[in-house]
Amino acid sequence: MASNVNPTVRRRRLGMELRKLREDKGMTAEQVAERLLVSQSKISRLENGRRSISQRDVRDLCDVYEVEDRRLIDSLMQMAKDSRQQGWWHAFGDIPYSVYIGLETDAASLRTYEPLVIPGLLQTTEYAQALVRGAWPETAPADVDKRVQVRMHRQKRLSETENNNPDLGPLRLWAVIDEAALRRHVGDAQLMIRQLEYLIEQSEQPHVTVQVMPFELGAHPGVNGQYAILEFPDASDSTVVYIEGVTSDLYLEKANDVQKYSVMYEHLRAQALGVDQTREFILRIIAQYADKGE
C-alpha cells in the first residue's frame, strides 16, 4: 500500500471530507476543539492537510459529527491510515518543503513565476549545487547534496508518469522567468552557459513552456515575488497557490485567492516574451556569457 500512496494528497482529501462533515453539522472549528479538548489550530490544520492525522482523530471527529454510516467511517479511517505512509521524499530525511513536494508529485500542471533564479524543475545539477551553497552558506556539504538529490528526483515528473497514478502523465509546466534569473551569476560563466542551454532544451518539450520577462518591460504583476499555482487531475483536489518562505511556506486554497493569482499569472504570460522570442533572448545572453568566458 505504501508505494501507491501520496500521503500529502491523502491528507488534503481527508481534511476536505472532515471539513464538509463539520460544516454539514453546523459547527465551528472552535466548537469542535472545545468538545475534543484540543486547540482550534489543530482542527484547522487537520482540515487543511497540514498536519498528520491519526485513525483515532478520525474516530473522535466522526463521534462529534454523529456519523452513523459505517462505510463512510471505514473509508475515512483508511484514508487516515494511508496518509501516514511515507512518500519517496521521506527517504532523504527532513525536507523543509515536503508538503510542496507531495503536492507537486501528484499535480497535473504547474504554473510558476521566478524572479531571481531558474525554476528548480529546470535546473542542472551543477547550477543547483552552486545555488544551494550560495543561498544557504552554513549548510553542511551532506545537506547540500541531499537538497540537490531531491531536486533532481523532482524533475522526473517532467519526463515520466507518476508511479502512484499511472493515469497521470508528465507534469505540464509553464514557467515565466525574470531576466534577472538569467543574468545572475550562479557559478562561473561556463556553468551559466550550460544551464541556459539546458533551459532551452527543456523548453522544447511539448509539455514545457518557458517565457522570459525582460527588464525593459518595467513593472509587471510579478514584482511582488515568486509564486506557483498547482492544479490536480482530480476535481476534488482544489488548486493551490504556493509561496515559498525562508522559515515557513504559504499555501493558499480559497477560491478568491486562487482566482487573484491566476488572473495575475495570465497578465504575466501576456506581457512576457513569446516562446520563440524567449529562446532567441536566451541565446543572446548565452553569447554574452561566452564573451565573458573568453
Automatic annotation (TrEMBL):
Name the domain of life.
Answer: Bacteria
Q: Provide the leader sequence positions.
A: none
Q: Which Pfam families match?
A: DUF5753 (PF19054), HTH_31 (PF13560)
Q: Any idea where the HTH cro/C1-type domain is?
A: 18-72
What protein does this entry describe? Helix-turn-helix domain-containing protein
- Organism of derivation: Streptomyces yangpuensis
